[in-house]
Each structure stands twice: as C-alpha cells, then as structure tokens.
Amino acid sequence: MQKCRPGCYHAAVPADERALTDALAALDDHRDDELRIDGLAATELAERYDTPLYVFSARALDDRLAAVRAALGARVELLYSIKANPSLAVTGRLRRGGAGAEVASLGELHLALAAGHDAPSLRFAGPGKTEVEIAAAVALGLGTFHVESHDEIDTIAAAATAAHRRVRVAVRVNLPQQLAGARMRMGGRSSRFGIDEDQVPAAIERVGQHPHLDLAGLHVYAGTQCFDAGAFVQHATAIVTRAAAWERELGVPLDELDLGGGFGVPTSAGDPTFDLAAAGRGLGELIAAHDRPTRRWFVELGRYLTAPCGVYLTRVVRTKDSGGERHVVLDGGMHQCAAAAGMGSVIKRAPLLVHATDLRGEDRAPVSLGGPLCTPADQFAADLELPPLAAGDLVAILNAGAYGISYSPTGFLSHATPAEVMVEAGKARVVRERGDSRDVLRGQQP
Ligand SMILES: Cc1ncc(COP(=O)(O)O)c(C=O)c1O
What is the C-alpha separation between 393 and 397, in angstroms, rounded? Predict the structure, then answer.
C-alpha cells in the first residue's frame, strides 16, 4: 500500500480486470479502443457538450432494471432510492420501467412527483425529517413514512391530525446484527438510523395510540456497497423473523416489509461482483416461506440500478512531472465525482478510470490524476498505469451513474456544475444543463 499524503492511502491496484470489462460492456461492445456509449463516441459527446460531463445510457439503465426485476421476482416491489442519482430523466425512466421510489428529503419528494410518481406510492425515510418536511409531505399526500425515532411518530401524527388525513408509517428497525459484507454500515449498533430492535414494540404501540396513523409494516436498511448476497438474504431473514414474532406478541399485522438493499457495484479494479442471482434465489425462498395475500415485499436500490449506466468524462488540462512522478491535471474532480476521489472511503482505491481513446493501450506508465481543486484530496488515483495522456485527451470514470453530483461538494471553488446527457437510441440529449460560473452569485447580497 502506498502513502500519497498524510492520512490517505491508495491500495495497490490488483490485476483482476473483471470490474473494468463489465463496466465497459454495460455501455457498448467496445470492439476498438474508443469508449462509446450506445454507439456514440465519448470524444464526440465531449466535443458537443463540453467537459466535465456526465453521460447516462438509457439502454444500460433499462437493462439493469430488467435484470434486477427478473432476479427478484414478481412479488418484490422495487423502489428506486433517488439519492443515488436525482436526475429527473433517470428517475422518470426507472418509473416507466416499473420501479417505485423512496425519498429522503422534500427535494427528492418533489423530484419523484415531477418524474411521474403518485404521492401515495412514495416512501419517505431518513433520520432527520423536520416538522416542515413532514407537514409538506403529508399535504402532498405522501404514502408512507419510515419512522426512525419515537418522537418522529408524534410529529407525523400531529401533522396528520392538522391536515385531517390518515397517514401510514413503517418502523425502520435497527437490528442488532450488522449487514456483513457492506463497506458502509448503518446499523447493528448504536445508530442514528432506525429504532433499536428492543424499542420497536414500544414504537409500534405508540403508532397504535395515534388515531390518524396506520401501521404499514417494517423497514430495514443497514448498509451500502454490500457485495455479499448471502449476507443480504440473512439480514432480510432476520427482519422477517422478527416481524413474525412481533405480530404474535403484539397482535398487530406487519404486512409491508421493506428489506432494504445496498447491493454493491464495483468501483475499483479488483472489486467483487454482487451475485444478483443468488440474492434473488435466497429472497425467493424467504418470500415463499412467509408470503400471504396481504403482504407486500419491497427492496430499495440506488447504486445498483444507476451506477453502471453512467460515465463521468473529464479532459486533461495539463500534465507535469514532479518529484519523479507524472501528474495529470483534469478539468473535473472530487467536487463533481467525489466518491471516485475516495470521499467516504477509509482506503482510497483508484476508480475505474480509462483513457477514452486508448482503452487497451499497452504502452502504459504510472500517473497520478487529480482535479483543479486546491486540496490534495482532489485526486482520483496515484500511480495508475495508463497509456500516455496529453492536454486535451479525454479520460472517463466508469460506473459513475450513482452518487455523482448528488454526493459531491459542488460548492468548493465555485466551478460550474457539469451537464448531464442521456443517450437513447443512438441520440444524445441534455437532461441537466451545465451550470454557469456566475451561479456562485445566485441569491447572495453584498
Ligand atoms: C435508507 C436508505 N435506502 C436506500 C439507500 C440506497 O443505497 P444504495 O445506493 O447502496 O442502493 C440508502 C443509502 O444510503 C439509504 O440510506
């Protein structure tokens, strides 16, 4: 492991190329050395729409959704977690393909409605929903709140009473066991997320005391980037088992079970592949054993649905040598593609980054690639073996269709936000306009 700056480590890049070949294959067949998205050359898109640029493939999105729905089976209602990519075009396309949606803010709720979702079908999770958000969601007719604390139940009840509406709630459970195999865990110990298992009966009783609340069921979501399908099924089994016990003990039906998700997507060379078929088989057996006509089963996925359909294109601004190393400075960086620069990871691994016009180039040498920000954190890779890069060349980060702009510190250094383009049936269209460098002034007063 190499140290690239204090506190930051780059893992050595393993030889395993599967992650890269799969990511390329999701976009095109790539018979030559040029990166294409559904037949359109990345260089052509960069020329037409400028860089940095996000490109989404409608076909890759459709393919992914179809594969997930087929694997999980007809009894599972799939929810798209909008936080992964709050693009209206992406969210709308997934909706038309049959995915529901879960939201985590009022902004995401507005986006879901604009994408054509019906308010009653939407589910709202998140540990910090404010009174204002809750009241607005009730007024908009939101379907189900996933409650994460006891007093949130009272806040939702107050909003429901004030609006003279009945509101459905599902209790998000913090199970004592962690989601094994997840790179980022959000449960299984003291947590801001969900209600601890031993406090759930009290939460269920509290819901029952409010005449304007209906208990829909339970929700669990314990981590993201989980590469272990068996661990996901085990975790789902744990909540289904608890649900059956609480139904017996408390005498309430818990019809709706949202089993979470967090299926992993490779973002670095050598990353494993999530075994979707195994997850589907395991879930199928679980559902068969616990199904009933009134039951609804949900799985919520963000990254797994959208990451493979997206590419982040960025151009080389300049190259230089320093301290015996080759540096490549890009026009894009962590302010727009933060996860690829390691934000949120303890160990930084180089993202799936390719030379867009020399995919298979054999003449490789180590380079460090980073963006224009005034921080050493703005670095995608140290000593990544790539074909030679010169000013004007295009590089691409693959599997970048999730947690791109929405997970990035776009305000740092006040660059314009990148445009987003959707490629569909061989044609590209802008689905999010590029920002403007004067956007920094918007709403400000001297
Ligand atoms: C409650 C909840 N649901 C769904 C997701 C989406 O996770 P992923 O993008 O890994 O599928 C998250 C991510 O943080 C989450 O917190």
Answer: 14
User: Could you identify the atom of ligand 1 that is nearest to the CA of residue 264?
Assistant: 10
CATH: 3.20.20.140, 3.60.21.10, 3.40.50.620, 3.20.20.10. Which one for 118-301? 3.20.20.10
Gap from CA of 47 to ligand 1 centroid (Å): 34
Q: d(Cα 428, Cα 34) in Å, to the nearest integer?
A: 17
Task: Outline where DSSP puts E strands in 253-399.
Answer: 256-261, 296-301, 310-322, 325-330, 353-355, 365-370, 379-386, 394-397
Say if pTM beats, i.e. exceeds, 0.90: yes
Distance 80 CA to ligand 1 centre (A): 9
Instruction: Pick the residue whose CA is nearest to atom 6 on ligand 1.
Output: 302
- Quick one: which atom of ligand 1 is closest to the CA of 221? 1
Distance 251 CA to ligand 1 centre (A): 31
CA distance 166 to 57: 40
| 3 state SS of 73 | coil
Q: For every one of its 446 residues, what pLDDT tens digit does the chain have, with 9 covering 90 and above?
A: 343 444 343 443 344 688 999 999 999 998 889 999 999 999 999 999 999 999 999 999 999 999 999 999 999 999 999 999 999 999 999 999 999 999 999 999 999 999 999 999 999 999 999 999 999 999 999 999 999 999 999 999 999 999 999 999 999 999 887 767 677 777 777 888 899 999 999 999 999 999 999 999 999 998 889 999 999 999 999 999 999 999 999 999 999 999 999 999 999 988 999 999 999 999 999 999 999 999 999 999 999 999 999 999 999 999 999 999 999 999 999 999 999 998 878 778 899 999 999 998 989 999 999 999 999 999 999 999 999 999 999 999 999 999 999 999 999 999 999 999 999 999 999 999 999 999 999 999 99
Domain ranges (residues) in the chain: 2-57+308-435, 118-301
